[in-house]
Amino acid sequence: MSDHFQIAIDGPVAAGKGTVSRLVAERLGFLYVDTGAMYRVTAYLALQNSIDLDDEAKLVELIKDSSIEMRNPNDDERDGRQTTVLLNGEDVSWKIRTEAVGSGASKVAMLKKVREELVKKQQQIAAKTNVVMEGRDITYRVLPDADVKIYLTAGEVVRAKRRHLQLQTRGSDVGFDEVYKELLLRDEQDMGRTHDPLKIVDGAWVVDTSDLSIDQVVNLIVAKVKVMQQNVHKH
Ligand code: DC
């Protein structure tokens, strides 16, 4: 077991993992780690360097040659982002949020060696500080001994509506049907892949956010962690 407190959150696309994790991290003073951003950075690197999204060896080399830093946004960076991502010192926090990069991320995430490389980086981060880490394989691969394991989910239509709204807010005019179709495809890729697919592990706390506000979800998780922390102090 790590000396640090670890909250591991997995769940499908647009379940609210990002917003919920960041707010939980803020309330508890933990570091928020968005592991999807690392898969996105990998896809972004591939697109920038014209490397095929299934060229495992070249992608691993690219990751090894790059520095990927993630931190809670500082005061100058409060532009709606959940986390700040620096790739070789360049702020790519927004550049990795396009649908093209997202769909590329889902593809590079199928590659075993890419996953191994990124999981190592994620474990190194969690070894240094208390974290709320979210992704698809955090509860069983990255942090199998996490203090709290959560599977955060919501119905497909609810998630597609949330994603649609999010895209509209950012100025995109993509239609709902396309967003919905893309979401189903992403679910299929994330849950159906051979290496470390998204799944609900034994003992995970399943939180369905379809009928809950963000605040309600955050309060639920924070309350549970506080009780756990008190119990630890009593022993
Ligand atoms: O959460 P997101 O949409 O930013 O993630 C982008 C892609 O990365 C998503 O399709 C699944 C993949 N991913 C993964 O396979 N494992 C993780 N721990 C996080 C994300």
List the helices and strands and how they pair.
Layout: E1 6-10, H1 17-28, E2 31-34, H2 36-48, H3 56-65, E3 68-71, E4 84-87, E5 90-91, H4 99-108, H5 112-126, E6 131-135, H6 138-142, E7 148-153, H7 156-169, H8 176-192, E8 205-208, H9 214-234
Parallel strand pairs: 1-6, 1-7, 2-6, 7-8
Antiparallel strand pairs: 3-4, 4-5
Helix pairs in contact: 1-9, 2-4, 3-5, 7-8
Bound molecules: 2'-deoxycytidine-5'-monophosphate (DC).
How would you portray this structure in words?
This protein is α/β, with parallel strands linked by helices. It has a single domain, classed as P-loop containing nucleotide triphosphate hydrolases (Rossmann fold, 3-Layer(aba) Sandwich). Helices cover 50% and strands 14% of the residues. It is built from 9 helices and 8 strands. The strands form 2 sheets. Strands 2-6-1-7-8 form a 5-stranded parallel β-sheet, with helices on both faces. The protein has a 3-stranded antiparallel β-sheet with strand order 3-4-5, with helices on one face. A hairpin with a 2-residue loop joins strand 4 and strand 5. The longest helix is centred in the last third of the chain and has 21 residues. The radius of gyration is 17 Å and the shape is globular. The chain starts with 5 loop residues before the first strand and ends with a helix. The chain binds 2'-deoxycytidine-5'-monophosphate. 2'-deoxycytidine-5'-monophosphate binds next to helix 2, helix 4 and helix 8.
